[in-house]
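User: My advisor, Dr. K., asked me to get a structural model of this assembly before our group meeting. I'm new to this, so sorry if the format is off. These are the inputs:
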Amino acid sequence: MKTDIILCGVGGQGILSIATVIGEAAMHENLYIKQAEVHGMSQRGGDVQSNLRISSDPISSDLIALGAADVIISMEPMEALRYLPYLSKEGWIITSSKPFVNIPNYPDVETVMADLNKVKNVIILDIEKLAQDNAIPRSANVILLGAAQKALNIEYDKLENAIRRVFGRKGDAVVEANLKALAIGKEAQR
Amino acid sequence: MRKLLLGDEAIAQGALDAGLSGVYAYPGTPSTEITEYIQNSKLAVERNVHRRWCCNEKTAMEAALGMSFMGKRALVCMKHVGLNVCADPFVNSGMTGVNGGLVVLVADDPSMHSSQDEQDSRFYGKFAMIPTLEPSTQQEAYDMMEMAYALSEEVCLPVLMRVTTRMAHSRAVVEVKETPRAENELNYNAQASHWVLLPGNARRRNVTVTGQQADLERRAVESEYNKYVDGPDHKMGIIATGIAYNYLMECYPDGCPYPVLKISQYPMPKELINRMTAECDEVLIAEEGQPFVEDLVRGVMPGNAVIKGRLTGELPRTGELSPDAIKRALGIEVCEGYASCDDVAPRPPALCQGCGHRDVYTALNEVLKDYPNARVFGDIGCYTLGFMPPFKAIHSCVDMGASITMAKGASDAGQWPAVAIIGDSTFTHSGMTGLLDAINENANITVIISDNLTTGMTGGQDSAGTGKFEDICRGLGLSDEHLKVVVPLPKNMPEITKVMREEIEYRGTSVIIPRRECMQTLQRHLKQKKAQEAKQ
Ligand SMILES: Cc1ncc(C[n+]2csc(CCOP(=O)(O)OP(=O)(O)O)c2C)c(N)n1
Ligand code: SF4
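Assistant: The format is fine. Below is the predicted structure of the whole assembly, which you can bring to the meeting.
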């Protein structure tokens, strides 16, 4: 198997915690992993992205080629669109629906939604509302992960176990909240 | 043992496992995580490995050389522009040579994700005539550290290890050793005539070091990290260095039809390069950074092979490479994804909400409304973002410390008002000496040291001068009358603007210190405090 994933959002939205869980699941399966992260200047409210590649065969490049990404997981709808040239024609976008408006020229939200809906495979979720409604306000990003499970080509229970290992140190309540978030995301898959 | 490590972390772990006794560094993207990893390492704590941040790259380089002279293994880490700051001790450490292994780790930032230029540190390695390493993978980065220390001690020279952003900040699974090597014993193996670079000694030493070059090149030819893999099709050969090798291999999952020379150790393995230019009609050279190898291979003499690369347009002249850039150079079709979307606005970084620098710029802009000819010399840090709207408040940013000295030069030229704005960490990095110049001439400048009690831009590392700035300024000869401290908060605007106005009007050197903690470190500290309280 081989899955090329672009994780994106706005600096400070915590895209790397999703990457950590995927990385943990992949590591446990003895898969090869390459994950190019963004540190530094662009973290101050700028756009951020991470290229995460997992594969059963050795991986050469740290970066994903144009048109090759299987999944874009985005914490912000316009940011998902930024990486469209990297998305394979059969690839998936899994994104939060909530715009993060910290620039004066943020495009019209309806246009952004329309652009997203032009993509063949897309899941748009109001993860913050889902998280609020389910009393797991700190686990919104894991809902996206759940919704991306099939596109990631990782079995559900392997993600569950990865969550247990990654969040175990923080106590049972945190583990449970994230498992719940994962389940909510899973339900949202088509 | 397998670990999922950033390139930076693999380097740090590799150094620790090679028996490191001290890391000396000043933060700088993309090198910062090396030192941070060592600071958080249990082994480093147990062994009391030196791991505190230094004032700047020059003090770091010199301290590491001192440790090496005493026989222990030391590591210096910096971003590429830091090598300019420590160029003097760096180049001259090539002249003195070393005793304990000394590795200088420099992280370059092609495409300038977080930097002011895209300089390629391999030029420095050649310049200083020392072995230079450029790993292709995180595993190589780890393995190379042990090799680098052994090499450094064997040839008695420092070793430069050059990585780039994609290596430093990319994670991969790395196989690491179970048992770290012991540290070296203190061993003052005095080589006084090497170590005292008086001209007479240095001349002798220069002959020795230049004489070592053939041996260093032989080592590069034989290195396990440089490999020549022949291919059936000799119409072209490909030289790929460091991380560019990965992008090349990405294009040929089933093996490359052309001969490939991977280079990860310098000086240039000329024998291997000559084989390729002799056996292939054309040679494509792919390297991350500037066309270092390409320029040397191309030279000025006509050869029998056509050299292609960044200088001939097959590869982009500047910026990072990517799998797609290599595909284009090889004439391989680039995969088509979705068309790019026009409805995406750029999202540049900005100062955090509530950041004290914001209040400083708000006040400064308010005051400077009355001085339309004012020039504001900026410096390097989060506050450089004051260039962006809504502030648009600075007129220059060149290198660390330049705000004060450039304001002084402008003032010498007749400019008034000349304002310098500099962060606390940048001030102790290389602003203090410039301030002494200004004070000695009572230059007509206003210096604002925007003190947020941390090194913000690189993620909130300790700042060397915290708690000492007033004393430092006084010590440099500034009178208390023109040393003002304010708290940058919206409610204090009247006071801050009054102070700024007065000090601009004062015809001499003055320093204003707006002081309030960085929002990011404040939040971190509050969280830590809460966790501490929960424990009790
Ligand atoms: C020679 C050199 N070393 C390191 C850096 C990386 N760097 C850029 S800004 C910065 C920190 C600045 O800290 P400070 O002056 O306190 O300002 P703040 O970011 O906290 O506002 C560092 C270390 C650099 N650009 N140049
Ligand atoms: S990190 Fe700190 S200094 Fe930098 S912009 Fe944010 S609050 Fe300001």
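One thing worth pointing out at the meeting: Residues 92 and 121 of chain A are 5 Å apart (CA to CA).

User: Perfect, thanks a lot.
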